[in-house]
Structure of ATP-grasp domain-containing protein:
Amino acid sequence: MAASSSLSIKPRFDSSNYPRIQSSDVLFQTSSSLNLKNSRRNGFRGTGIVRSGSEVVAIDDRRAEGVSEKTREKGRVLKVGLICGGPSAERGISLNSARSVLDHIQGDDLHVSCYYIDPNLNAYAISSAQVYSNTPADFDFKLESVAQGFNTLTEFAEHLASSVDIVFPVIHGRFGEDGGIQELLEKSNVPFVGTRSKECRTAFDKYDASMELKKQGFITVPNFVLQGSELDESGLSRWFFNNQLDANSGKVVVKPTRAGSSIGVTVAYGVADSLCKVRQIISEGIDDKVIVEIFLEGGKEFTAIVLDVGSEFDCQPVVFLPTEVELQSSVSADLSEKDAIFNYRRKYLPTQQVVYHTPPRFPLDVTEKIREGATILFKRLGLRDFARIDGWFLPTSASVSSSEKDDFGRTESGIVLFTDINLISGMEQTSFLFQQASKVGFSHSNILRTIIQRACLRFPSLASYCCESNGSPRKSKSLKLVQQSSENEGVQKVFVIFGGDTSERQVSLMSGTNVWLNLQVSGDLEVTPCLLAPGNNISSRTVWSLPYSLVLRHTTEEVIDACTEALEPARAALTSHLRKQVMEELANGLKNHIWFTGFDISDEQPIKFTLENWIKLAKEVQATVFIAVHGGIGEDGTLQLMLETEGVPYTGPGFLASKICMDKVATSLTVEHLTNLGVLTINKEVRQKADLLNCSVSDVWHEVVSKLQCETVCIKPARDGCSTGVARLCCAEDLGVYVKALEDCLPRIPPNSFAKAHGLIEMPVPPPELLIFEPFIETDDITINSVSKSRNQHEGLLWKGSSRWVEITVGVIGKRGSMRSLMPSVTVKESGDILSLEEKFQGGTGINLTPPPLSIMSAEALVRCKERIELIANTLELEGFSRIDAFVNVDSGEVLIIEVNTVPGMTPSTVLIHQALAEEPPMYPHTFFRTLLDLGSQRFV
């Protein structure tokens, strides 16, 4: 219990607990304030908001104007070329990494130019606005008209040589980590961040890397490589025999040798199944060289970030606190789930199927061996700047043998093996890089700038750029400190709340994290991230005030567990011990670099409040609450009413509008009188879950299709998120499958469970009491052609247009009564008839066309569509911002409303960002979220 009246005054950062860099010019931030007192810190250029493709505007407070002039005089603007995309399946994740890097390194002292490599290795200079697209497919089809193309990669490299000082490649997988882009840059003498091409080739190839590790004395996982069309079946059979594996059922892992660590990895049983999986990888074009490894039964997976803090060509790697990757499988899991591996979906979509622990829950000698081994590996393989190294801890050595007893990796507690080397680690907002960096004192900006500055040290021509500050003042504070800092006039306090207990709580975590990171850039804000925990009694529900590192998790459950774990004395002591050790190692290297000005993230404790006391504290410190809780009390008006009762300003619509929009039936009834004005509603049939469970499925089906006068229906919860539990049903058998999922409380319906193909369907847990049936609205598929090898035959849109209706989603923004429509987006479904959770919110998936192409919707229809969207928003008395999903007639602009989301997704990949960027002038994320905050802050003015 932590009521506001009982809060004690405690320093934010006790610097006595941490190593101090011995330099008069380089200091740690003090506990009492995040304001930079040191003269060198006051020279920081500020984090910028991108206004156009090249303009950066500093917002880091009163120093900005003078600093800008000083920067121009000295000519110390470092020009960084950020390259993303590539031919691998992870090119969408690459775009997310580029977006995150762009967000956190922009400044008056550092200008970023963005470049994109398409799947056929064509290079383009793209605008920063395009980096904020959800997926490359959002703009692939129009690259020829909106981007500067280069005729050859050589021409591209020559352009880089004359236009940027250093390149930061963020291409994952092929061409990014296999030495391809590095060799191109080396030939044109372009400085770049990361490992050289020769070393990349060895480290990226899993088989070659394992051979090199074995040569260097490391214990490795027994493996066998297969390549080309003629697969060595007899050789594989002998390998099974030699490793005491049953030829018919021996369990192995099959994976491409030259692909990302999560692409194409699968479990196989026996020789025949292994060969089948190998052929599948080859036929899908992932790789023609495939490795088969022993399945490490009982093994525990880990990953560790390595940062080189040396000077010039002197390598001094420091390994951060490793992360344990714990895969979850339910009691009722099928075989494929129990054999789960850390695949693409588990890595990139927040899910309870995987949990991370930093530091790992391994014996201390194992953690130390991981850090020691990763350090040696980094040096011996000739890696540079930074890398991520994955491996396994085996409590027993039963499945791994080695020829020498002194092979590296043995501990009293078991064996440590290294299996994957990631030369360009993922850099999404909550990636391992930022998770582990924040545990040892680095903010996003600080770690990225440190990596860039370290790379600059290898190039004499860039030495002059290594004398500026690399840290941005963080304005994220714990609630213990918000009270005591109330004397800071002109500083607005913001509580960002996210989480909850609905099926979209993981998306809420992503939204809240994105809002928090974007708002804390503003120098006049103190932004505190807060997690709403699940619970029944509303006023006594728990709200956690979170320290920086605990926000960077993948699920709300993981955050809550981490909060509890952080308060557990033994675990807290271990973390503190390891953290101090790592920070000392970092400080010993970084103290030699004048540009490093200290760590800017402290390891605070989380604080637990009741929701009632949290709201009282918000009132006491005059904070504005930024609501990012999707569904439940965050979107049904409950939280809004509680805040309004206490006079606490908040973002988004008021409680009455929220309550109406949460109920899809009430929403339709409120706007049904607008029919003559071109706003239409969909007929609905509401059924109770109990009726569906107890009645004949066949009878219910015939009653529903008869009443709705349709052949296929769309079923959805009456009061839940826009993606959860939504499915197309084509027959009574489909309804039976859906009802069975409700009865069994399934968290998800597997792909293709219904008559018509579809993707994975996330289900609300617990199941909803009320469900809605609607006629399924038929629209023609919008297809984006695959990229051909000829630039003249680049991607394009295919749309039959027989049905004149398309599905759109559109944001609205403004004050009540004067809401205006942003640019609508046409939604393109990739895996069925209903947009999946991934397509709406997972970075690198889902396609949105913003603005609607003229080949689909005329300019006149678009204008009328926006007018009707605004009519809907004002009729519902929306304010602040919301998102409206609808079908639109491409000829008349008539709108058929689906639903209204009063707390829409605000993830880095959300369509709202694309629409804000389509404004004139463009609203970049920092500006967009600040605008939404300001609208909320003015609620009671």
Summary: Residues 487 and 580 are 32 Å apart (CA to CA). The chain has a mean pLDDT of 85. The first helix runs from residue 64 to 74. The chain has 32 helices and 38 strands.
